Amino acid sequence: MLVRVRFLRTAIHSGRFNTSLVLVVLVVLFALLGPVIVGHDPNAVVGSMNASPASHPPLGTDNFGRDELTLLMYGTRTSLEIGAIAGLVAVLIGVVVGTLAGFYGGVVEEALMGATNVLITIPAIVVLILLSVALGSRSAVTMGLIIGVTSWPWTARAVAAQTSSLRTREHIDIARLSGASGFGIIVRDVIPYILSYLGMAFTLQLATAVLTEAALSLLGLGPTNTISLGILLQWSLLWEAVRQGVWWTFIPPTFFLSVVSFGLLLLNSSLDEIYNPRLQGGGGSGA
Amino acid sequence: MSARFRRYILTKLVWYLVALLAAVSLNFFLPRVIPGNPVDTIMAHFLQSGGQGAAAGKMYQAFIAQFGLERPLWGQFLTYLGDIAHGSLGQSFSLFPAHVTTLIGQAAPWTIALQLPAILIGWILGNLLGALAAFKRGAFDRNLFVTALAFSSIPYYALAIVLLYVFAVVLPIFPASGGYAFGTIPNLSWSFIFDALSHYLLPFLSLVVIAIGGQAVGMRSMAIYELGSDYVNYATSLGVSDRRVLGYVFRNAMLPQITGLALSLGTLVGGALITEIVFSYPGVGTLLFNAINANDYPLIQGITLIIIVAVLLANFLVDMAYGYIDPRIRAARSGER
Predict the structure, then answer these.
(1) pLDDT tens-digit readout, B54-80
(2) Is 1.10.3720.10 the CATH classification of the domain at A2-34+70-279?
(3) A43 Cβ under 8 Å from any chain B Cβ
(4) In sequence order, which ranges of A57-105 are alpha helices (DSSP H)?
């Protein structure tokens, strides 16, 4: 309780925390409420081809005469959905591998961390390219899953380090003496202590996953039959929108990608600063 | 001591060989775990685009035989390993009969020319700025930190798109696509070099700015961490001069930054794929993009293999350098394990 009060007090006084929270909440509201308010199919043709924002407010139309604002709302929603699935999957795998390795130590740790270290060195983008090429069609959920499956090792490594430092704490000894099982101790006495870190890891994974989705889309390996921020960018490159100066089709998705990424990273670093008083007085970067 | 160091290197070497084998296996098996084989996909595309049935049948047989697809998977994998060991990555589907190694060999110099200077300059400037911010703190630090964080969190391709639009379309100062003017043949004349440079500047800038941001953020938090550590407090309380303390701080904060440099060097091939696609730059990224669009599996797998090897090599060199520079690691690793 005391920790929470102090956390809130520091948080309210941290301008960076507030800014980033507002940014993230605005983007999420735009993605969740936007489609509900607009209430029409993003693929509906509503105007002429590449109509400028002046002739078709507020954001003009794309190469097929679809409303750019609606596309942007649905695109942001899909991107965040992919990011959230990937973040959850990555944190989940990371927690399981990390706590098992950190808590049991010995051979279990050697084996799990050995595998983790091998996977860390293999660039995720390569595995993603190979997986995406193999999966001919990819839904948003599939994209989230494959991004999550390739991005957990960093979280696992950090969780293992934190768990193994927790292992020697007194409350864990007491739990062990009172006959609790290893699994029970991990769930009741280890995970609550690293929850703040897990929240931070999730924001970081979410941000990275949104950008990864966009990168894959630009390589031509994005989600099929759906609209994401990456797909919007891919379309505008495909139809030479940049070189034709049709800025309203690529500046908004670029801006949204940057805001999502910047907002989440700033949130992550300000949380880091709040939990890690040593960094206070200027800021710090997330681990 | 040197025997210990040798053991450290050997252990590392074994780990990296395991990682390489894992990566090569992923490279080989991932595209094959899905039912059907690449040739089916190619044939489907061929028939869709109006190919003849009889010709398709012959092509199918030829492809199956050439890629050894009628043999069991393990046999194929062993052949694949053997081919790699001989430096052969097979032939491209879409640019048949060009060899994958030739195609990558043509594209790689463009990518390296773009990435190597961007990584090095970004690293040097980023570290200087980050260390300065950590030392000065105050308004300079706050502004620099937020700016650096903004630039390091903007996806690198987003900056590329914006730069392309602003400096090649709105203000047509720089050419909008390619590595050199369309229709010219690369040569060493001044006019060609100037032309290539004008194509080079925008993609280069889009990479270097992001690199500076990322390095500055990392260096700053490392330096702040070091500045608050016990040995600094102790040295300051002893009255050691600021300059000397800063020297210690810089040396300790540099250690992870050297890792950072080597790791970015590992992304030499795979780190700017989309920049190249945005600018239609004739490097590995554009090659990969075309290969993906054409379902050119041998070419895709060749490029992913090169990316993997570059990253593993960089990681291995980091570990070597680390074992050499940081005596703590050397002792810990070879002592007990």
Answers:
(1) 777 777 777 777 666 677 778 888 888
(2) yes
(3) no
(4) 68-104
Buried b (16+ CB within 10 A) or exposed e, B68-95: ebeeeeeebbeebeeebeeeebbbbbbb
Segments of chain A with pLDDT less than 70: 1-14, 39, 277-287
Question: What ipTM was assigned to the predicted interfaces of this complex?
Answer: 0.82
> Which residues of chain A make contact with B312, given a CB cutoff of 8 A?
121-122
What pLDDT is recorded for position B337?
Answer: 36
Chain A contacts of B32, Cβ < 8 Å? 134
CB contact under 8 A, A245 and B155: no
Quote the CA–CA distance of A139 and A134 in Å, as a whole number. Answer: 14
In whole angstroms, what is the distance from residue A110 CA to residue A116 CA? Answer: 10
Residues B110-167 have pLDDT tens digits of: 999 999 999 999 999 998 888 888 877 788 888 888 888 888 778 888 899 999 999 9
Q: Name B53's Cβ contacts closer than 8 Å, sequence gap at least 6.
A: B47
Task: Give the pTM.
Answer: 0.84
Number of H helices, E strands in chain B: 14, 0
Distance from the Cα of residue A109 to its chain's centroid:
27
Using the beta-carbon criterion (under 8 Å), do B221 and A279 form an inter-chain contact? yes
User: Residues 6 or more apart from B258 whose CB is under 8 A from it?
Assistant: B318, B321, B325
Chain A residues in contact with B30 by the CB 8 A cut-off are: 127, 130-131, 134
* DSSP 8-state symbol, A2: H
- List A61's β-bridge partners, or say none: A67
DSSP label of A246? -
